[in-house]
Design goal:
Layout: E1 8-11, H1 15-26, E2 31-34, E3 58-61, H2 67-77, H3 81-88, E4 90-91, E5 96-99, H4 101-114, E6 118-121, E7 133-135, H5 143-153, E8 158-164, E9 167-169, E10 179-183, E11 186-196, H6 198-210, H7 231-235, E12 262-268, E13 275-278, H8 287-294, E14 305-307, E15 310-316, H9 319-322, E16 328-329, E17 332-337, H10 347-365, H11 378-388, H12 416-434, H13 441-444, H14 452-456
């Protein structure tokens, strides 16, 4: 009599672990999912829900021709839990897909808890078990699991420091000094704007660059990830750096018709608009200085902060040395790694690695022999970054067209995104057909995403 294969053990209930668990269970594979919270928490998490978002509530651009939008469509083509839940919990964010964090995490948690093929363990996994294992413990991997990984890998993790943007309570703001408008002239009036003139900006800039920050050790000073650079670190690059970065006033006009010299944009955190995130204002300023500096922003003079900007260490491995194209650890092939610990950066990319692993594992469990996803797709481009980058210079990366192979034909710059997307669609459909995997062509073709009201109905 044939014995039932052991369940796949997934360690970590973040975006990668949850996506992987859902994809496997949806394909008939039994899963045991381990999550240490709420019994043991981390410096960045606030709840015990699965898939809690800690740095931002945005999954970045939803433009089907943007690399992030393309990755979303590819994931949706395979029935992504994370993207589907994000659409159901969406809040207005112009051209981005942003969510109400609580609704999003609750939806993911409830979906997985209700699935008959998923067994939940709400306790810390302190070792790597035998059999098929997916370690998706994220950038805040516990000491015990870090030690278990080091034992397998034979060396220390790499790491960088990630910063979290502050959140303010909407009713503490002076809305007479603020106005709603789109971001960079795209989408609806989804962002609350605090405009500054030249003199206001100079006062803010001087206070920001003089603020006291949490110290780093000398060898840690160059380890910030460029995409999450603290606002005060950006400011030190030059007086106008912020005006061409997170405080760029492009496409924004005050209600009286005047132009802003610089602008701070706030994005709603929840459906009630009771909390707002200062977009791009991640910080490692000490909290007293942080409050003093941020209250120099027009309209924020009496702001109450429900969360201050923070900094935390993100752990990741040197994937080009340790991972195969199927996310297997070369030192222990039954163990796969998913999420930010592999060296992808961002919510979207983390979830995508969990989906990729689930596709490979499900094919193997049914007797198939999967081939690697094409590097011309967004999913395959992530694999390419993780396994083909130079180990000497390996750094975390968001999905971008620089990770893709060059286009075969010469294409004008204005048409390159379209060409990349069309090539990705064709090669992903071909790969799915070759492996007898169902795929939603409508999702892949970039059909207009549901607006938040439709997604929640």
């Amino acid at each position: 009599m044939a014995t039932m294969p052991k369940p796949v053990q997934i360690i970590g209930g973040g975006l990668a672990g949850c996506e992987c668990a859902y994809q496997l269970a949806s394909r008939g594979v039994q899963v045991e999912l381990w999550e240490m919270r709420p019994k043991r928490t981390t410096p960045a998490h606030k709840t015990g829900d699965l898939a809690e978002l800690v740095c931002s509530n945005s999954l970045r651009s939803d433009d089907p021709l943007h690399a992030a939008g393309l990755l979303k469509r590819e994931m949706e083509a395979f029935g992504s839990l994370i993207i589907g839940s994000a659409r159901a919990a969406a809040v207005p964010a112009g051209g981005a897909l942003a969510v109400d964090r609580d609704i999003f995490a609750a939806r993911v948690t409830e979906t997985l808890a209700a699935h008959p093929l998923i067994e939940m363990h709400r306790e810390e996994a302190t070792r790597i078990p035998t059999g098929d294992v997916v370690v998706a413990t994220g950038p805040l991997t516990s000491e015990a699991m870090s030690a278990a990984l080091i034992e397998v890998l034979g060396g220390e993790h790499l790491y960088f420091y990630d910063a979290i943007a502050p959140i303010v309570e909407s009713d503490s703001l002076d809305h007479s000094k603020l106005f709603w408008a789109s971001r960079y002239g795209k989408g609806d009036d989804d962002y609350l704007n605090a405009a500054m003139d030249d003199s206001e900006y100079r006062v803010f800039y001087e206070a920001l660059t003089a603020a006291e920050v949490l110290p780093l050790h000398e060898f840690e000073k160059e380890l910030f990830f460029e995409g999450c650079l603290p606002i005060e670190e950006m400011a030190r690059r030059g007086v106008d750096t912020l005006r061409f970065g997170p405080m760029k006033p492009v496409g924004l006009t005050r209600p009286d018709g005047s132009k802003a010299y610089a602008v701070v944009q706030l994005r709603q955190e929840n459906l009630a608009k009771s909390e707002l995130n200062l977009v791009g204002f991640q910080s490692r300023m000490k909290w007293p200085d942080q409050k003093r500096v941020l209250r120099l922003i027009p309209g924020l003079e009496n702001a109450r902060f429900s969360r201050m900007g923070q900094i935390h260490r993100n752990t990741f491995i040197n994937s080009p040395i340790h991972l195969s194209r199927f996310f297997r650890l070369k030192q222990r092939p039954m163990v796969r790694l998913a999420g930010q610990i592999t060296g992808v950066e961002g919510y979207l990319e983390s979830a995508a690695t969990g989906l990729i692993i689930a596709l490979y594992l499900a094919l193997e469990r049914t007797g198939g022999s999967p081939t690697p996803l094409p590097t011309t797709t967004a999913l395959g481009a992530l694999i390419r970054h993780l396994t083909e980058s130079s180990p000497k210079n390996f750094q975390p990366a968001n999905i971008n067209y620089g990770l893709f192979p060059e286009l075969e034909d010469r294409v004008a710059k204005s048409g390159r995104r379209q060409a990349h997307a069309e090539r990705a669609h064709a090669t992903l459909e071909e790969w799915a057909a070759r492996h007898a995997l169902e795929i939603s062509v409508a999702a892949l073709d970039g059909s207009p995403p549901l607006v938040p009201s439709q997604a929640r109905s």
